[in-house]
Amino acid sequence: MRHYIKGFFCLLLGYSATAAAEDDYGTVEERIRALAPSATSIAISETPIEGVLMVQVNGDIVYATADGKYLIQGRVVDMETREDLTEKAKAEVRRELLVSVDTSKQISFSPEEPAYELMVFTDIDCGYCRKLHSQMAAYNEQGIAINYMAFPRAGIGSRSYEKAVSVWCADNPQEAMTQAKLGADPDPLQCENPIAEQYQLGMELGVTGTPALLTADGQLIPGYVAPEKLRERLDAMVAVTAAD
Description:
The chain is α+β, with helices and mostly antiparallel strands and 244 residues long. The protein has two domains: 2-74, Disulphide bond isomerase, DsbC/G, N-terminal (Nuclear Transport Factor 2, Chain: A); 103-243, Glutaredoxin, CATH 3.40.30. Helices cover 45% and strands 19% of the residues. The chain contains eight helices and eleven strands. The strands form three sheets. Strands 7-9-8-10-11 form a five-stranded mixed beta sheet. Strands 1-2-3-4 form a four-stranded antiparallel beta sheet. A hairpin with a 5-residue loop joins β3 and β4. It is globular and about 60 Å long.
């Protein structure tokens, strides 16, 4: 009989813990929706920190105390392993978004057999974007494919946006991109184009500046990185993933 009572209380405690967690989630979601009423999706999950929940709001990651009282913005890093738990969570979100990308609408510069495929959000007028493009042969020699996506930092309808449209609409988009990166104004052209769509995707992926490099598994490398250093960094990222 004692075993039955013990089992009943274990079951009851498990149910109570689950119910409490669900109550916490409901409270946190209610508070988050009050702060971000236009959010299209909110997902809540546990973290290794007791009393702190991770909240995915659209494509962004924030944290909240389980009682819904405090909102925490920033990164959570495991100081023992030095793993950035926030970036890991964001990479998972990005991977889901990358599945929908139409790669036929990218402007690609690739070696015959690339070791790495990078999606690079670029702005026609960005200085470091131009520096990256000027070293395209070196990136390709390092086995890195650069697949451009448009991200006119000044926004839709800006001069940079119109230049991107003209480049994507050119008969030879690769050559048009190269000339634009050299500072030449592309011939003004209009066609059905992916610029606004790519810009919006960049916003959802957390791109805030250019160039922004994304790996196939959703890891974000912000800013310019020299070809040899980029290859070293990509190799190191693969090694860490393999170790996990």
